[in-house]
Amino acid sequence: MAPRVSIGLPVYNGENFIEKCIDSVLAQSFEDFEFIICDNTSEDRTEEICRAYADRDSRVKYFRNEKNLGAAPNYNLCLEKASGEFFKWIAHDDWLSANYLEKCVEALDRDPSFVMAFGMPQEMVDEDTIYLDTHWTVDMWGFKGPVERFARAMRIDRLDHAIFGLFRTEPLRRTTLHRLYYGSDTTLVAEAALLGRFVGIPEAIFYNRRHQERSVAISDKLERLRWQDTSNTKKFSTEHLSRLKHVYDVSGRYPEIAPRWRILASVFTRMANPQQVMRYVAELVAMLIPNTYWRIRKFILQTIGVIKPSAKPTS
User: Fold this and answer.
1) How many CB atoms within 10 Å of residue 160?
2) Is 26 exposed, middle or buried (0-12, 13-18, 19+ CB in 10 A)?
3) Residue of 12, 29, 127 whose CA lies nearest to 77
4) Phi then psi for 120, rounded to 5 degrees?
5) What is the pTM assigned to this prediction?
6) Which tens digit of pLDDT belongs to each residue from 210-250?
7) Residue 285 contacts residue 292 (beta carbons within 8 Å)
8) How many CA atoms lie within 13 A of 11 on its CB side?
9) 96 and 22 in contact (C-beta within 8 Å)?
10) Would you tell me the crossing angle of helices 274-288 and 293-304 to the nearest 10 degrees?
11) How big is the chain by its Cα radius of gyration, in Å?
C-alpha cells in the first residue's frame, strides 16, 4: 500500500548538514511516508550516510544517479519516483519541526480546495541560532482568486517556505515543474497557485539554514545556470528570458481557469518594467552579438543605476 506522503531530498555533496535534515524527517509525528533521496553523484560522504539510514529505516529509499543531472532534473526526479498522495521537497541543509507533516496533512484533509500547505519559515545560522526573526502572515494565499494568487507569487522574491511546502501530488504533476534556469521554482509555485489555494500553518516550522554554500549565495549567473543544468555549455545566461518564456507557457496551459491574456496582464508590471526589459535586451545581445555584450552590459548597468565591478572573461 502506498504511503500517504512522499518526501523528496535531491542532494549533491551534502555531508555537512544532511544528517540533521534526515533526523528531522524520521522524527515526524506523522509516520506514514516514504523518504526518497536522489543523490547527484556526490563525491563526499553523502552516499555512505544515506545508505546507513536506508539500512536502518525502510521508509528511506536511496537512489544514486549515474551522472550529475543538475539541480532541476534531480528535483523533478524525486517527484517522478514518488507514490504518495502528498509530496514535499526538502533540501539537505534544512530541517522540520516534528509536527510539520502532521499539521500540513490535517490542513489538506480538512479542505480539498487547498493544493499545498506550508509551515512558518525560520532562517537559522545553525541548529540553535536564529538568523532573522520572521514576519509572516498566513492569509497571503488562501482567499484570493487564481490569477491574483499567481501574480502574488511572481512578486515575492523568496518562496522557500512555499516550494518546500506539502503539495497534493496530482496537481503538482500537472505543472511544468522545475525548468532548466535558476529561479524557476518561483514560476512553479505561481503555477501551482493557479490550480488551488495555499494554506499557512504557523505552528509547523520550516527551518531554513543560512550559509555561504547554499544555492542562493551563488552570484555568478553562469555558475547558477550550470548548477541548475549540468549539460548546459552556454557562455552566457538567459535566466530572465527563460523565466519570461516559462510564464508565457504557463499562462496558456489552463484556459479553464483563466485566459492567457488575463494571467499575463496580472504580471505585466513585474515582467515588463524598464529594468526588466533592459535585462531581456542584455541577454538577447549576449546571444546574438556576444562580442559587444560587455559594452552593452556596462551601459545598461549605468542606466539603471546599479554599477557593479565586472571583468571580461579572458577566454
Assistant:
1) 17
2) middle
3) 12
4) -70, 130
5) 0.85
6) 755 555 545 555 566 555 666 666 666 788 899 999 999 99
7) yes
8) 33
9) no
10) 170
11) 20
User: How far is Cα 9 from Cα 7, in angstroms, rounded to an integer?
Assistant: 7
For residue 66, what is its C-alpha cell? Answer: 549515474
d(CA 115, CA 93): 25
Confidence at 283, pLDDT banded by 50, 70, 90: confident
Query: Does domain 5-209 match CATH 3.90.550.10?
Result: yes
Phi, psi of 156 (to 5 degrees): -95, 130
Cell of 104: 500540513
For residue 150, with 0-12 CB atoms within 10 Å meaning exposed, 13-18 middle and 19 or more buried, which class applies? buried
Residues of the chain with CATH 3.90.550.10: 5-209
Rounded CA-CA distance 160/89 in Å is 10
Is residue 39 within 8 Å of residue 63, measured between CB atoms?
yes
